[in-house]
Write a structure and sequence with these properties.
- It is a multi-pass membrane protein.
- Its main location: membrane.
- Belongs to the glycosyltransferase 2 family.
- This is Glycosyltransferase family 2 protein.
- The structure is a single chain.
- The chain has 11 helices and 10 strands.
- It is elongated.
- 51% of the residues lie in helices and 17% in strands.
- About 4% of the residues have low confidence.
- The strands form 2 sheets. The chain has an 8-stranded mixed beta sheet, with helices on both faces. Strands 9-10 form a two-stranded antiparallel ribbon.
- The chain is of the alpha/beta class.
- Helix 1 runs parallel beside helix 2, helix 2 runs antiparallel to helix 11 and helix 9 runs antiparallel to helix 10.
Length: 342
């Protein structure tokens, strides 16, 4: 039976070779200073650099570090899901490896959870001045939309830096959602919670893993995963376009009855464009929901683990070599396979 520890720290990583040393350099002292049993689960989300190999090297001197490498890139939230399923701690903290969320705050979160006897402690950003104006504005717009579509319980300054009790993690692991958005799922469960504020720092190295395209994808997943409001919006758009068409018909009949000469192509052109645009928007919204239903009906796993450094068997057969390999060698082979071709 797996040994239970007090604290599990789950950190998804994607191409974080430049940041991993500094991240470990700050995370390990923060956890060692707690005086609690702990484990760190680094989930490699299909990195195409030497992230996995470096993690395995660091693991030699840090036995609490556990490396879970996924077979391909599945996205931040799904990688976090894999880490939560692997975590054994009574409390589980999720944190990114870019050091924008300070590891030193973990001790405050654990103390707050015990002192106030709550199941969730959110890390709330009291200062985001290190983010670009574009990032702050788009994030503010995202949370503004979420609070109105999903519910007022969504915090506008709480991301994925949080501490959760084993009860919360158990519920999350039992959810059947293929693409959960945990910053919305966790508060929606209604567990008792509190907040710990911190100052958001600059990314220590590398590039952001949430460019505009992924932020848009996260927004779509958030909306379609938590609210049917877009379908209602489509209904209202259809009703509005119908009323506009009625008005155009009335206008046309009046013009015909009075004998006025009205060029017909302009009104027809506008009507066709308007109706076509509304219909395409509605079809797109319906398609988004149908696509999620289709993906769920397939029942495919959201992620597959290439190897786990805490697996019971220390050697595995690598598909390319056909022979047994240690986890360290397999990690290096995995990095080499994923490396982009020059």
């Amino acid at each position: 039976m797996p040994q239970v520890v007090t604290l599990s720290v789950v950190t998804p990583m994607f191409n974080e070779r430049e940041a991993v040393d500094q991240f470990v350099g700050r995370l390990r002292p923060a956890l060692d200073g707690l005086g609690e049993s702990y484990e760190v689960i680094a989930v490699d989300d299909g990195s195409r650099d030497a992230t996995v190999s470096r993690l395995m090297q660091l693991r030699v001197d840090w036995p609490q570090l556990r490396v879970v490498a996924l077979r391909r890139n599945v996205g931040h939230q799904t990688a976090l899901r894999a880490g939560l399923k692997a975590a054994r701690g009574e409390y589980v903290v999720s944190i990114d490896a870019d050091l924008q969320d300070p590891p030193e705050t973990i001790g405050e979160m654990l103390a707050a959870a015990r002192r106030e006897k709550v199941d969730v402690v959110y890390g709330v950003r009291s200062d985001r001045s290190t983010d670009t104006a574009f990032k702050r504005n788009t994030a503010g717009l995202y949370y503004w939309v979420m609070r109105r579509l999903v519910g007022p319980w969504v915090s506008d300054q709480a991301g994925d830096f949080r501490l959760m009790s084993r009860a919360v993690v158990g519920v999350l692991n039992d959810l059947p959602e293929p693409r959960p958005v945990y910053r919305l799922v966790v508060p929606s469960l209604g567990f008792s919670s509190t907040e710990v504020s911190y100052v958001r720092e600059e990314r220590v190295a590398g590039e952001t893993k949430y460019p505009l395209s992924r932020m848009i994808r996260l927004t779509f997943d958030s909306i379609t995963g938590f609210s049917a409001s877009p379908l209602r919006i489509a209904t209202w758009l259809g009703l509005l376009s119908f009323l506009l068409c009625v008005a155009l018909i009335v206008t046309g009949l009046v013009a015909w009855g009075t004998g006025a000469t009205v060029p017909g192509w302009t009104s027809l052109y506008i009507a066709v464009l308007l109706l076509g645009g509304v219909q395409l928007i509605c079809l797109g919204l319906l398609g988004e929901y149908v696509g999620r239903i289709y993906a769920a009906s397939q029942g495919r796993p959201a992620f597959l683990v290439a190897f786990d450094s805490a697996a019971p068997t220390p050697h595995t057969a690598h598909p390319l070599s056909g022979g047994p390999l240690t986890a360290e060698i397999e990690a290096a082979e995995l990095d080499r396979e994923r490396a982009p071709i020059a």
